[in-house]
Amino acid sequence: MSTVEEPEVRTWNFPRGTASVAVMAGFAAEHGVTADRILAGTGLHERALTDADAQISADTELAVVRNLVRELADVPALGVEVGRRYRISTFGIFGYACVTSPTLREAISLALRYYRLGFAFCTPIVESRPREVITWIHHDTIPADVQRFLVERDIVAMHRVMSDLLGARVDFSSAEFSYPATDQAEILTRLFGVRPHFGHAHTTFGIDPDLLTQALPQANQPTWALCVAQCRELLHRRSARTGIAAEVRDRLLPGTGATGFSTPPTLDAVCRDLNLSPRTLRRHLVAAGTSYRALLDEVRQALAEEMLTATPLSVDDIAIRLGYAEATPFIHAFKRWTATTPAAYRRAHRRD
Q: What 8-state DSSP symbol labels residue 56?
């Protein structure tokens, strides 16, 4: 039996920090290309690359990628070499949350949950099987002119980060690419510990499932919980709901005076209210960097926190009011949202 985990959204079109651009600009500088040339046409200035609060669109980073690929077209294995420059520290508080996670499994789950705090253009779907954990790399929506570069950059960066987390090189059990063979096979073999295969139907890589249960050398529960809370706040600031996302969120909120919904509105019901087809609404939400499921989780989390701190309702009652059949899936979801249990959250935040 297998289980599947995927990011909150299946799109690369979300706002992001400038740390990834700084990595690429640094690599370019080592090869004699100035920051002005790498940032040409983006409206970015070099000083923005050291601003931890700076935020750019994915299209801006994509423009930097195109500049880099054009300026360094003669550099062998460009995507691989750039991907090797991404370290856990590149990801700021998001990276610290991963590195202080209890196990690699927890770190991967957290990385998928806060996928929009990273810089990937590929969408990873993680399937845990009894004998191998397969990550399916979806890249069909990446523009064709930079697709191979970004696939190799992102996969090598994922490999580097997992190795950082465990404190030792991770050997892949398999690596397959959906495009024809390149001259990068030898360098990828040395990096991944397994020879990659090309021309497959999908791009995937596998790891030993035993790696998931290994305790991370820098695991620290209090630090992890603090970092997760900061990740949540950062994502909230980046995802301030406006436009169609705000309209959907408003329709997911219960009526005035309500303390929850026994059955949350379905996607079809919201579509009817907005006079949109499900396909059109999904497309608009993807463009806004979110999804119906993500917005429903936001509303459920806000209602859960309110009921835990302001009412005497039991966890079972709150679960029912949020549309769960029983408490267990609600508890799992709440821990995924907040890195703590409903009971612990209530003890820490209960109002007098």
A: B
